[in-house]
Amino acid sequence: MEKTKYQKLASDLKKEIQSGYYSENEKIPSLREIQTLKSCSLTTAKEAYRILEEEGYIYVLNKSGYYVHKNIGSVILGPQNEYFETVEADDRIQQIMNTVMDPKLISFGAAIPADRYLPISELVSAYKKALLYKDTFSYGDLQGNPQLREWLAKRSSMNGYRVSAKQIQMTTGCTEAITYSLFAVTEPSDTVIVPSPIYVGLFQILETLKLKVVEIPYRTKEGIHINEFEKLIKRHKPKVFLFSANFNNPNGVLFPEENKIGLANICFQYGIHLIEDDIYGDLYHSGTRPKPLVSYFSQSMDGPKSFLCSSFSKTLSPGLRLGWVVSKTGIHSISKIARAFKISENHPTQLSVLEYLKRQSYEKHLKSLRIEYKKLCDDYNILLTEESNGNLHITKPDGGFVLWIESKLDGDKILMEAKKLGMAIAPGSLFGLSKHWKYFFRMNVSVGLSPKIREKLILFAKRFQKNGNSKRTF
């Protein structure tokens, strides 16, 4: 989409600041002066300066004028928020995903747990048992198997978010859970605020529902910057905040607790609905299971609603396609939407998973996954950093099984280079509508570290040895 005059002016002024033309604390031209210098209207100048002020490039002193921000270095090294009138998840995404999912390549790109970390034999046994139930092949409860929902409710309550089985709707995976949640609280042309980078699959949903998007970048150690977030709310008036507070895909970031509380309070204050993707929440690398952000959100039947979405795809099996939505005040809307698309959820699969949960220790299985994934993340980090001579910079994830890696090379070109080695990675450009992540890529460590894999990774990392050091951009 073509930029407006004031957006183009703001972009030009950012480049001047980034280049050092204007230095820290230096006074910049007044609105009238910039109007003459750039041959633009006063309105265009005002709007451009407003963007620069909101994004932290400049600040204003009463009766003195505009100045470059005191800590401009921390601003220009990081990505900025951007607004998109339309979302276009074009064919390029599908083309790249076809490469990422190519069975002929070692799939480091898809965020799918390897079979060796899934309880396949136990699930097969559970399916065989469930198939003997007399009602297995009948329609089940539209909201989902009551016993399975009861199990999920108890587990959620144990992890700090107290809910009942009546407040849970089963879905076909987490993607459907998020889609239903957006469908429940938005209309075409509403605005949704999302962190960047974020899971690529969300853009297809946002495009299909014809929603506008504001991207706000993750900030090191703090998650989402509270003041930046509030400014965006005031400016764009979003209907929904769509996010993953616990181990976001692709960067593995965990929001600090104080950040979750602050974001929850601001959203409730401004009437913003929350939709949280918590699919990686059980895969923390240390400490205890973090509470979802929605657990800090005030609940009111007349106020904004919250939806917690997850599934068994990352812990039991992606092929189960078994997810759920938890909502204390909006579950009726979710169930009504589900009723429009189906008569019931997959009854045999729900019974089989319930049978597995009765016979096996889910917590023991999760503990094993957490230990394995943390070790693999650490081992990959060491190997890739050493073999690239420090030219691959890896964001240390707080959980999950993917690494977010920065280099000096274009991620799309890295995809092609990896393909020559029989590997597939996911280029960073997939994970945002903006171009902030062009020099990043995502890598799935659950592929393991066998001698063959190690050899591939070494050859891959050595290709970065001559490309110089890069700076982290968030």
TrEMBL record:
Record domain HTH gntR-type: where: 3-71
UniProt feature coiled coil, ranges: none
CDD domains assigned to the protein according to its UniProt record, in alphabetical order: AAT_like (cd00609), WHTH_GntR (cd07377)
Highest taxon of the lineage: Bacteria
Gene Ontology molecular function, alphabetical: transaminase activity
InterPro entries named in the record: Aminotransferase_I/II_large, Class-I_PLP-dep_aminotransf, PyrdxlP-dep_Trfase, PyrdxlP-dep_Trfase_major, PyrdxlP-dep_Trfase_small, Tscrpt_reg_HTH_GntR, WH-like_DNA-bd_sf, WH_DNA-bd_sf
Entries under Pfam families matching the protein: Aminotran_1_2, GntR
Keywords: Aminotransferase, DNA-binding, Pyridoxal phosphate, Transcription, Transcription regulation, Transferase
Known cofactor(s): pyridoxal 5'-phosphate
Protein family membership: In the C-terminal section; belongs to the class-I pyridoxal-phosphate-dependent aminotransferase family.
Listed name of the protein: HTH-type transcriptional regulator NorG
